[in-house]
Structure formats: C-alpha cells, structure tokens
C-alpha cells in the first residue's frame, strides 16, 4: 500500500463530511433568510470580516468558487446593503469589496448562528472529542487552504 493511502471506503469518509456540510448550508440559509442573505453568501461576509477591502477575484479564489458565482453573491449582498464595491486604484478593471455598517453589524448574528449549529453538531461529544475533532479537521483541511491548490494529476495504478 502506498504512503497516504487508506483502506476505508471513500463513502465512509466523505459521506459524513458532505452530510454535515449540506446540513450546515441548509441551516444557515434558513437562519439568515430573514436578513435576505442567501445560501453561501455569508461566506463572503466571513472573509470580509477578516480582510475588508479584498478584490472580488481574491474572494472567489479564497472561497473556491467561480468568478461568476462570486459576482452574483457580491451583487446580492450589495443590493441588500451589506457590502459595496470600489474600483481598485491599481487595476481599474478590478473591484475591491468592503463591508458597510450594516454588513459589519451582521457579524454577531452570523457568528451566533454558526455557534448554534456547532452546538448541535457537538451536542453528543465530550470536551475531549470536540478538541480531537477540531484538531483532526484542521489537520485534514490544512493543505486545501493554500491559494491555488490543485488536485494531483496522478495516473491510476
């Protein structure tokens, strides 16, 4: 067996991850519907909470979505008054995205909803299991946080 290969059925690993992810999206969409923030749009706000004034292209790259998806999400958030765009002084073809006061005020609401979801997710975990899960999730995802990550183009054995 090659290094890094596991003998588990991929469904055993990805099935639960996908189920948690999809449930999370559904939960957040329902919770943020009253604020007119659509599914996945809050992810853009989350990035802006860490780096306000980022380019649309970098937002798309960081969230691993297409430029078209990024543009639609930002346009919707802009229409609802959560963000605004300004031309990039260094590249007049590009826009930088900034939070409005309304967008900044949503930070607490979004974090509250995320914590509520995590509380449900971890409701049957011991404190030790929560910490192990957190550490393993970070370890598993670390390589995918790098900008420009591309899946390997390895030929099958």
From TrEMBL:
InterPro entries: HTH_MarR-typ, WH-like_DNA-bd_sf, WH_DNA-bd_sf. Keywords: DNA-binding, Transcription, Transcription regulation. GO terms for molecular function: DNA binding; DNA-binding transcription factor activity. Residues 10-142 form the HTH marR-type domain. The keyword Nucleotide-binding does not apply. It holds the Pfam family MarR. It comes from the Archaea. PANTHER family: MARR FAMILY REGULATORY PROTEIN, TRANSCRIPTIONAL REGULATOR, MARR. This is Transcriptional regulator, MarR family.
């Amino acid at each position: 067996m090659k290094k890094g290969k596991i003998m588990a059925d991929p469904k055993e690993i990805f099935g639960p991850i996908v189920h948690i992810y999809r449930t999370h999206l559904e939960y957040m969409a329902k919770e943020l519907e009253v604020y007119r923030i659509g599914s996945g749009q809050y992810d853009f706000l989350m990035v802006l909470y860490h780096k306000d004034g980022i380019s649309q292209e970098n937002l798309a790259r960081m969230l691993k979505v297409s430029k078209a998806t990024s543009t639609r999400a930002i346009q919707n958030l802009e229409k609802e008054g959560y963000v605004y765009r300004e031309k990039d002084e260094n590249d007049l073809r590009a826009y930088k995205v900034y939070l409005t006061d309304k967008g900044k005020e949503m930070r607490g609401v979004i974090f509250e909803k995320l914590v509520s979801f995590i509380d449900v997710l971890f409701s049957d975990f011991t404190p030790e299991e929560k910490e192990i899960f957190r550490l393993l999730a970070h370890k598993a995802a670390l390589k995918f946080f790098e900008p420009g990550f591309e899946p390997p183009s390895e030929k099958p054995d």
